Amino acid sequence: MGNERAPGCLFTALLLVLVLLVGCVAAFGENTALRKGQTTAITLDENPTTGYVWTAELSNPDVLGAADAYESDPWKSDADGGPGGKRTFTFKALQKGECIITLRYQRTAEDKPIETKQFTVTVE
């Protein structure tokens, strides 16, 4: 009986993660305007134990600076493999102009990402 509920719980958990992920990205926006000196951040789910990590590429690093940090989720003894976590990219407006941010989720040894997100930031 307990196993009959597990798929529903898993679906609910996955749906919640998707809503949170979309919420983080939507808050940033596909087109974002910043003033010089302002910062903004994007947080994405990541599980480096699978080999997949998020990377950021900036079309114009003179306009927008970037830093990133990874925070692991707490370890659960019943989990398979290692815990996942969150990667947060922080961007700082350096000077006026436009910069396209391309985020890729891929294994470092592979050429093709499994997910790509792109944002345009205009610094005023």
Summarize the topology:
Layout: H1 2-28, E1 31-34, E2 39-46, E3 52-58, E4 64-72, E5 85-93, E6 97-107, E7 115-123
Parallel strand pairs: 1-7
Antiparallel strand pairs: 2-5, 3-6, 4-5, 6-7
Task: Provide structural commentary.
- The protein is of the alpha+beta class and 124 residues long.
- Helices cover 22% and strands 46% of the residues.
- It has one helix spanning 2-28, and strands spanning 31-34, 39-46, 52-58, 64-72, 85-93, 97-107, 115-123.
- The protein has a four-stranded mixed beta sheet, with no helix packed on it. The chain has a three-stranded antiparallel beta sheet with strand order 2-5-4.
- The longest helix is centred in the first third of the chain and has 27 residues, at 2-28.
- The protein starts with a helix and ends with a strand.
- The model is unreliable at 1-27 (pLDDT under 50).
- Shape designation: elongated
Number of helices in the DSSP assignment:
1
Number of strands: 7
* Strand content range: over 45%
Q: Give, in order, the helices and strands.
A: HEEEEEEE
Mean pLDDT: 79
The neighbouring-strand order within the major sheet is 1-7-6-3
